[in-house]
Amino acid sequence: MLKVANSVISASRITGVLPVVNGGTGVTTSTGTGNTVLSASPTLSGDVTLSTGNLVVADTKGIDFSATSSGSGTMTSELLADYEEGTFTPSYTGSGGNPTVVYSTQSGIYTKVGRLVTFKISLVTTSSSGGSGNLGVNGLPFAASSGQGCSLQFVLGFASNVLQPTPQTSNVLLYDTYAGTSNNQAPTSALTSAGGSTFLFFVGQYFV
């Protein structure tokens, strides 16, 4: 069953038959416009095929999966209300001052399905200097939900082995084994002392 927000769908974009099972009041045709208008809560049986165009959903609306069975946990929502994909530009930061960095590769891509964001970051430097405090990467397309860490899928870099988004920010904190101590946030010197070319590639997921 497909639940659609009260809206107008061009009749030229619908093929097949839309049988109405709520007393015949679910679908009406507006005179002279060539549009098929759905009532506030129509019930349709059978499949709906869009031969051209897209199904455009209003903001905060989506596909309601409440007809499906729920898991054993505490269900909070069954509405798929967002999908997005795109690019962003990540860069190194320092909590006390940003380092000066020359990049040969500086790219990020992401896909957001509901509240889950999957992202990939690629940073390759040719030189870096300055900066102070703890090292991080900013530019994530969405702020992480409070208390949510990052599920890291893989990372290749100069020292880092654990990463997580900072809650309520669009930054990624970098933790490493710098100075032989595990699970410490990396200082900016972990980047700048490497000199020359460094690289950092990782894929992760987090909730917004």
Molecular structure report:
The protein is mainly β and 208 residues long. It folds into 2 domains: 1-81, no CATH class; 84-207, no CATH class. Helix content is 2%, strand content 43%. The protein is built from 1 helix and 17 strands. The strands form 5 sheets. A 5-stranded antiparallel sheet has the order 8-10-11-17-13, with no helix packed on it. Strands 9, 12, 14, 15 and 16 form a 5-stranded antiparallel sheet that branches. It has a 3-stranded antiparallel sheet with strand order 1-4-3, with no helix packed on it. The longest helix has 4 residues, at 189-192.
SSE blueprint:
Layout: E1 8-10, E2 14-15, E3 27-29, E4 35-38, E5 49-50, E6 63-64, E7 79-80, E8 83-88, E9 91-94, E10 100-113, E11 116-129, E12 135-138, E13 151-156, E14 160-165, E15 171-176, E16 184-185, H1 189-192, E17 198-207
Antiparallel strand pairs: 1-4, 2-5, 3-4, 6-7, 8-10, 9-12, 10-11, 11-17, 12-15, 13-17, 14-15, 15-16
Q: Which series of helices and strands comes N to C?
A: EEEEEEEEEEEEEEEEHE
First-last Cα distance? 28 Å
- Computed over alpha carbons, the radius of gyration is 24 Å
Structural class: mainly beta
Task: Pick out the low-confidence regions.
Answer: 1-8, 10-26
The overall strand count is 17
Strand content: 35-45%
Helix content: under 10%
User: How do the strands line up in the largest sheet?
Assistant: 8-10-11-17-13
